[in-house]
UniProtKB/TrEMBL annotation:
It catalyses: 7-aminomethyl-7-carbaguanine + guanosine(34) in tRNA = 7-aminomethyl-7-carbaguanosine(34) in tRNA + guanine. It comes from Lachnoanaerobaculum saburreum DSM 3986. Residues 253-259 are annotated as: RNA binding. The gene is tgt. The keyword Nucleotide-binding does not apply. This is Queuine tRNA-ribosyltransferase. GO terms for biological process: tRNA queuosine(34) biosynthetic process.
Amino acid sequence: MKYEIKAFDKKAKSATMETVHGTVETPLFMNVGTVAAIKGAVSTDDLKEIGCQVELSNTYHLHVRTGDKLIKEFGGLHEFMHWDRPILTDSGGFQVFSLAKLRKIKEEGVNFNSHIDGRKIFMGPEESMQIQSNLGSTIAMAFDECPPALAERKYIETSVARTTRWLQRCKTEMDRLNSLEDTVNKEQLLFAINQGGIIDDIRISHAKDISEMNLDGYAIGGLAVGESHEEMYHILDVTVEHLPQNKPTYLMGVGTPINILEAVDRGVDFFDCVYPSRNGRHGHVYTNHGKLNLFNKKFELDKRPIEEGCTCPACRSYSRGYIRHLLKANEMLGMRLCVLHNLYFYNTMMSEIRTAIREGRYTEYKNNKIRTMLEG
Ligand SMILES: [Zn+2]
């Protein structure tokens, strides 16, 4: 893996990252395909057309349903879903802590019941690495605990210390798996995850500890889980500078276009979020002049595309009025067109962000973009 920073504009950075599955340009937005598909009937051919650079799949979901061993039989996720560009898999940690029932955390890992069929599953750092190795993703995420945003200091301290010990175990196991003969991707990368709730000194000391462990990239987890936007920006302000600048910086699960613009300004260059696909499935579409709800009656006779000038597959051919009709009739095409437009909007914004950073006018770009989105 080669990560090379092409430009800084104050703290905002734009880089290229070479992987075994091709080169990507940052800042970038990873399009979320939970169970190896973007919800809304979006295919991997569509992803190429709408400018997706990295697809993200969920380890927990693929493990509990269909199973990673079956996917390994297909030659890994890339072959299984027909995608030849980078894939990031999360560690399963976030879903274990947010979805699974009756979980019990021990030093070795977590016992929990599947949210699908209730069967008992154990997942620790080694199991998470083994599952992600079977999936053969380009980038694996370390297994961590995501403590509740408003947990007590004592709980967060104990949890973060365990997450650091788990990171060392993830690294050891990943090295072992990458050296095995039948491993799908022997150059699988491993990103660490910084935790610490919204407590500055825990975030900073954890960032310093994991920075010394020489991972391929560094994520900030446990944000966008109930704290305010101001608290999230503050944590980025105090934490990012303690993570290695010469490695990818990934803010997990964030967020709105404005959240992304603000985080880029604070040195983040990898993002993922379910908002564009989830909102699209509900007929909520992003534009440079704010979000529209296509269910609204005022779009009934609207012959304009979702956004004038947008070259996505929805806007090239279809009107707001037609898409509204599809949504009201519960036709799958309505959801699909909205999801395609929204992902295209995010991917295009990331491309504009890269250009603005490389041309040294990021602040001006960001301020204009936010102003037009808020003015509506
Ligand atoms: Zn469009």
